[in-house]
Amino acid sequence: MSTHTNASETTPNLAAPIMLPAKRINADWTMLPAWAPLPGLAALAVNSFLLKGKAPVLVDTGVAPLGDRYLDTLAREIEIKDIEWIWISHADHDHIGNLQMILDRAPKAKVVSQYMGVAKLGLLGFDMRRVQVLQPGAVFEAGDRRLHPVRPLYYDAPETTGFYDPKAELLFTVDCFGALLPRPVHMVEDAREADLHAGMMTWSSLDAPWLNRIDRSAMGRGLAAIERLAPKHVICTHLPVLAGNVTTLTRPIAEAYCNGNGAAKADPLWVESALAGLQGVAEMAA
Ligand SMILES: [Fe+2]
Ligand SMILES: [Fe+2]
After folding, report:
1. For the segment 34-66, what is each residue's pLDDT rounded down to a tens digit?
2. How far apart are CA 186 and CA 202, in angstroms?
3. Using alpha carbons only, what angle is made at residue 3 by residues 63 and 25, rounded to the nearest 5 degrees?
4. Is the pTM of this model over 0.90?
5. I need a labelling partner for 124 at 20 to 30 A (CA). Which of 38, 86, 225, 273 fits?
6. Does residue 128 fall inside a structural domain?
7. What is the domain range of residue 89?
Protein backbone atom coordinates (compact mmCIF):
# COMPACT_ATOMS: atom_id res chain seq x y z
CA MET A 1 0.00 0.00 0.00
CA SER A 2 1.36 3.40 -0.90
CA THR A 3 2.04 5.71 2.03
CA HIS A 4 2.09 8.73 -0.21
CA THR A 5 -0.82 11.13 -0.52
CA ASN A 6 -1.54 12.07 -4.09
CA ALA A 7 -1.52 15.85 -4.06
CA SER A 8 -3.71 15.93 -7.17
CA GLU A 9 -6.64 14.68 -5.09
CA THR A 10 -6.81 18.06 -3.39
CA THR A 11 -5.65 20.24 -6.30
CA PRO A 12 -7.45 19.09 -9.45
CA ASN A 13 -7.28 22.40 -11.30
CA LEU A 14 -4.03 24.29 -10.97
CA ALA A 15 -4.63 27.85 -12.12
CA ALA A 16 -2.19 29.73 -9.89
CA PRO A 17 0.84 28.87 -7.74
CA ILE A 18 -0.06 26.71 -4.76
CA MET A 19 1.77 25.83 -1.57
CA LEU A 20 1.35 22.29 -0.31
CA PRO A 21 2.05 21.10 3.24
CA ALA A 22 5.68 20.37 4.02
CA LYS A 23 6.76 16.81 3.33
CA ARG A 24 9.32 14.98 5.42
CA ILE A 25 11.94 13.30 3.24
CA ASN A 26 14.03 11.62 5.93
CA ALA A 27 15.17 12.26 9.51
CA ASP A 28 16.80 15.59 8.65
CA TRP A 29 15.44 16.86 5.35
CA THR A 30 12.01 18.32 4.66
CA MET A 31 10.60 19.50 1.36
CA LEU A 32 8.53 22.69 1.09
CA PRO A 33 6.53 21.82 -2.03
CA ALA A 34 4.98 24.44 -4.27
CA TRP A 35 3.59 24.09 -7.78
CA ALA A 36 3.09 26.69 -10.46
CA PRO A 37 1.20 26.47 -13.75
CA LEU A 38 3.31 27.16 -16.84
CA PRO A 39 1.16 28.98 -19.40
CA GLY A 40 -0.15 26.61 -22.05
CA LEU A 41 1.83 23.70 -20.66
CA ALA A 42 1.47 21.93 -17.35
CA ALA A 43 2.39 22.11 -13.68
CA LEU A 44 5.94 22.73 -12.52
CA ALA A 45 7.15 21.93 -9.03
CA VAL A 46 9.01 24.78 -7.36
CA ASN A 47 10.36 23.12 -4.25
CA SER A 48 12.67 24.37 -1.59
CA PHE A 49 14.18 22.30 1.18
CA LEU A 50 15.02 22.53 4.86
CA LEU A 51 17.85 20.76 6.68
CA LYS A 52 17.08 20.74 10.37
CA GLY A 53 19.88 20.30 12.87
CA LYS A 54 22.46 22.24 14.85
CA ALA A 55 22.80 24.82 12.07
CA PRO A 56 19.57 24.74 10.05
CA VAL A 57 19.94 25.31 6.32
CA LEU A 58 17.17 26.50 4.02
CA VAL A 59 17.86 25.54 0.41
CA ASP A 60 16.32 28.13 -1.94
CA THR A 61 13.29 30.20 -1.03
CA GLY A 62 10.39 29.52 -3.41
CA VAL A 63 8.40 31.95 -5.52
CA ALA A 64 7.35 35.46 -4.47
CA PRO A 65 3.58 35.17 -5.16
CA LEU A 66 3.32 32.54 -2.43
CA GLY A 67 4.88 34.95 0.13
CA ASP A 68 2.94 34.55 3.37
CA ARG A 69 1.79 31.03 2.50
CA TYR A 70 5.42 30.07 2.01
CA LEU A 71 6.40 31.61 5.35
CA ASP A 72 3.50 29.89 7.13
CA THR A 73 4.58 26.51 5.78
CA LEU A 74 8.19 27.16 6.77
CA ALA A 75 7.18 28.41 10.24
CA ARG A 76 5.30 25.18 10.91
CA GLU A 77 8.61 23.33 10.46
CA ILE A 78 11.09 25.60 12.24
CA GLU A 79 11.41 28.84 14.16
CA ILE A 80 12.40 30.99 11.21
CA LYS A 81 14.71 33.06 13.44
CA ASP A 82 16.79 29.91 14.06
CA ILE A 83 17.77 29.45 10.40
CA GLU A 84 21.52 29.91 10.12
CA TRP A 85 22.16 29.40 6.42
CA ILE A 86 20.28 30.00 3.20
CA TRP A 87 21.79 28.08 0.30
CA ILE A 88 20.92 29.84 -2.96
CA SER A 89 21.47 27.37 -5.78
CA HIS A 90 21.25 30.21 -8.30
CA ALA A 91 19.69 33.64 -8.42
CA ASP A 92 16.64 32.82 -10.58
CA HIS A 93 13.25 34.19 -9.53
CA ASP A 94 11.93 30.74 -8.70
CA HIS A 95 14.78 30.19 -6.22
CA ILE A 96 15.05 33.56 -4.47
CA GLY A 97 11.38 34.63 -4.45
CA ASN A 98 11.06 34.93 -0.66
CA LEU A 99 14.72 35.51 0.22
CA GLN A 100 14.31 39.05 1.59
CA MET A 101 11.26 38.10 3.69
CA ILE A 102 13.23 35.30 5.30
CA LEU A 103 16.33 37.43 5.86
CA ASP A 104 14.09 39.96 7.61
CA ARG A 105 12.82 37.24 9.97
CA ALA A 106 16.06 35.31 10.45
CA PRO A 107 18.64 37.80 11.70
CA LYS A 108 21.34 35.15 12.16
CA ALA A 109 20.94 33.74 8.67
CA LYS A 110 23.73 34.10 6.14
CA VAL A 111 23.31 33.47 2.43
CA VAL A 112 25.74 31.28 0.52
CA SER A 113 25.97 30.96 -3.25
CA GLN A 114 28.58 30.60 -5.98
CA TYR A 115 30.38 33.73 -7.18
CA MET A 116 28.00 34.68 -10.00
CA GLY A 117 25.03 34.12 -7.71
CA VAL A 118 26.54 36.47 -5.14
CA ALA A 119 27.20 39.06 -7.85
CA LYS A 120 23.58 38.85 -9.03
CA LEU A 121 22.26 39.19 -5.47
CA GLY A 122 24.37 42.35 -5.19
CA LEU A 123 22.82 43.76 -8.35
CA LEU A 124 19.37 42.97 -6.93
CA GLY A 125 20.12 45.06 -3.84
CA PHE A 126 20.53 42.40 -1.16
CA ASP A 127 22.68 43.25 1.85
CA MET A 128 26.09 41.89 0.85
CA ARG A 129 27.19 41.74 4.49
CA ARG A 130 24.93 38.72 4.80
CA VAL A 131 26.10 36.96 1.66
CA GLN A 132 29.10 34.64 1.33
CA VAL A 133 30.76 33.15 -1.71
CA LEU A 134 30.85 29.37 -1.84
CA GLN A 135 34.47 28.87 -2.87
CA PRO A 136 35.08 26.44 -5.74
CA GLY A 137 36.08 23.05 -4.39
CA ALA A 138 35.20 23.88 -0.80
CA VAL A 139 32.91 21.65 1.22
CA PHE A 140 30.11 23.59 2.87
CA GLU A 141 29.86 22.98 6.61
CA ALA A 142 26.77 23.80 8.64
CA GLY A 143 27.14 22.67 12.22
CA ASP A 144 27.97 18.99 12.06
CA ARG A 145 26.76 18.61 8.46
CA ARG A 146 28.88 18.66 5.35
CA LEU A 147 27.32 19.36 1.97
CA HIS A 148 29.57 18.60 -1.00
CA PRO A 149 28.84 21.08 -3.81
CA VAL A 150 28.07 19.53 -7.19
CA ARG A 151 27.46 21.26 -10.50
CA PRO A 152 24.35 19.64 -12.00
CA LEU A 153 24.56 18.02 -15.44
CA TYR A 154 22.41 20.77 -16.90
CA TYR A 155 21.27 24.16 -15.64
CA ASP A 156 20.16 27.61 -16.73
CA ALA A 157 22.55 29.88 -14.81
CA PRO A 158 26.34 29.52 -14.48
CA GLU A 159 26.40 29.72 -10.68
CA THR A 160 24.02 26.79 -10.31
CA THR A 161 25.25 24.54 -7.52
CA GLY A 162 23.62 21.50 -6.02
CA PHE A 163 25.17 19.21 -3.42
CA TYR A 164 25.48 15.72 -2.06
CA ASP A 165 24.78 15.11 1.62
CA PRO A 166 26.70 11.92 2.41
CA LYS A 167 25.11 11.46 5.84
CA ALA A 168 21.61 11.43 4.35
CA GLU A 169 22.78 9.95 1.00
CA LEU A 170 20.78 12.69 -0.65
CA LEU A 171 21.59 14.46 -3.94
CA PHE A 172 20.21 17.93 -4.76
CA THR A 173 20.22 18.51 -8.53
CA VAL A 174 18.58 21.99 -8.65
CA ASP A 175 16.90 22.38 -12.10
CA CYS A 176 18.43 19.16 -13.53
CA PHE A 177 15.95 16.25 -13.89
CA GLY A 178 12.99 18.61 -13.54
CA ALA A 179 9.75 17.72 -15.30
CA LEU A 180 6.53 19.43 -16.25
CA LEU A 181 3.73 17.19 -15.04
CA PRO A 182 -0.03 17.17 -15.65
CA ARG A 183 -0.76 17.71 -11.97
CA PRO A 184 1.05 17.95 -8.62
CA VAL A 185 2.30 14.74 -7.05
CA HIS A 186 4.52 14.25 -4.02
CA MET A 187 6.78 11.46 -5.24
CA VAL A 188 8.22 10.66 -8.66
CA GLU A 189 6.66 7.21 -8.40
CA ASP A 190 3.21 8.84 -8.24
CA ALA A 191 3.62 10.16 -11.81
CA ARG A 192 2.88 8.02 -14.86
CA GLU A 193 6.10 6.97 -16.58
CA ALA A 194 5.02 8.41 -19.93
CA ASP A 195 4.12 11.74 -18.29
CA LEU A 196 7.46 11.82 -16.49
CA HIS A 197 9.48 11.17 -19.64
CA ALA A 198 7.55 13.70 -21.74
CA GLY A 199 7.70 16.24 -18.92
CA MET A 200 11.46 15.79 -18.52
CA MET A 201 11.97 16.34 -22.25
CA THR A 202 9.87 19.50 -22.29
CA TRP A 203 11.51 20.95 -19.20
CA SER A 204 15.08 20.11 -20.20
CA SER A 205 14.61 21.64 -23.66
CA LEU A 206 13.13 24.81 -22.14
CA ASP A 207 15.60 25.17 -19.30
CA ALA A 208 18.77 24.06 -21.09
CA PRO A 209 18.22 24.46 -24.84
CA TRP A 210 21.92 23.71 -25.41
CA LEU A 211 21.52 20.16 -24.14
CA ASN A 212 21.22 18.48 -27.53
CA ARG A 213 24.60 19.90 -28.57
CA ILE A 214 26.56 18.64 -25.57
CA ASP A 215 29.41 16.14 -25.56
CA ARG A 216 27.40 12.91 -25.40
CA SER A 217 30.17 10.87 -23.82
CA ALA A 218 30.73 13.47 -21.08
CA MET A 219 26.99 13.48 -20.34
CA GLY A 220 27.01 9.68 -20.29
CA ARG A 221 29.89 9.64 -17.80
CA GLY A 222 28.08 12.17 -15.60
CA LEU A 223 24.91 10.10 -15.61
CA ALA A 224 26.93 6.96 -14.85
CA ALA A 225 28.59 8.73 -11.90
CA ILE A 226 25.16 9.51 -10.45
CA GLU A 227 24.08 5.91 -10.98
CA ARG A 228 27.21 4.65 -9.17
CA LEU A 229 26.49 7.08 -6.33
CA ALA A 230 23.00 5.56 -6.05
CA PRO A 231 21.62 8.20 -3.65
CA LYS A 232 18.76 7.18 -1.39
CA HIS A 233 16.94 10.36 -2.38
CA VAL A 234 17.24 12.78 -5.27
CA ILE A 235 15.74 16.18 -4.57
CA CYS A 236 15.19 18.67 -7.36
CA THR A 237 13.52 22.06 -7.45
CA HIS A 238 11.26 21.08 -10.34
CA LEU A 239 10.46 17.46 -9.61
CA PRO A 240 8.78 15.52 -6.83
CA VAL A 241 11.15 13.60 -4.55
CA LEU A 242 12.76 10.48 -5.99
CA ALA A 243 13.16 7.76 -3.39
CA GLY A 244 13.62 4.90 -5.81
CA ASN A 245 16.30 3.87 -8.27
CA VAL A 246 18.06 6.90 -9.73
CA THR A 247 17.95 5.33 -13.18
CA THR A 248 14.32 6.48 -13.28
CA LEU A 249 15.84 9.91 -13.96
CA THR A 250 19.17 9.12 -15.61
CA ARG A 251 17.87 6.71 -18.28
CA PRO A 252 15.42 9.10 -20.00
CA ILE A 253 18.15 11.74 -20.20
CA ALA A 254 20.68 9.20 -21.52
CA GLU A 255 18.18 7.95 -24.10
CA ALA A 256 17.35 11.46 -25.29
CA TYR A 257 20.69 13.21 -25.17
CA CYS A 258 23.35 10.46 -25.31
CA ASN A 259 21.72 7.84 -27.52
CA GLY A 260 19.64 10.30 -29.55
CA ASN A 261 16.33 8.43 -29.61
CA GLY A 262 14.57 11.48 -31.02
CA ALA A 263 12.89 12.48 -27.76
CA ALA A 264 15.10 15.55 -27.35
CA LYS A 265 13.50 18.63 -28.82
CA ALA A 266 15.48 20.47 -31.49
CA ASP A 267 16.38 24.09 -30.84
CA PRO A 268 15.12 26.18 -33.78
CA LEU A 269 17.10 29.17 -32.51
CA TRP A 270 20.46 27.36 -32.65
CA VAL A 271 22.72 29.71 -34.58
CA GLU A 272 23.22 27.40 -37.58
CA SER A 273 19.52 26.84 -38.22
CA ALA A 274 18.51 30.38 -37.32
CA LEU A 275 21.10 32.04 -39.55
CA ALA A 276 20.60 29.55 -42.39
CA GLY A 277 16.96 30.63 -42.41
CA LEU A 278 17.95 34.26 -42.52
CA GLN A 279 20.28 33.58 -45.44
CA GLY A 280 17.41 31.99 -47.34
CA VAL A 281 15.25 35.05 -46.69
CA ALA A 282 18.05 37.32 -47.90
CA GLU A 283 18.48 35.30 -51.09
CA MET A 284 14.73 35.40 -51.81
CA ALA A 285 14.72 39.17 -51.30
CA ALA A 286 17.69 39.71 -53.62
FE1 LIG B 1 16.93 28.04 -13.03
FE1 LIG C 1 14.54 26.70 -11.38
Report:
1. 999 988 888 999 999 999 999 999 999 999 999
2. 20
3. 45
4. yes
5. 38
6. yes
7. 7-285
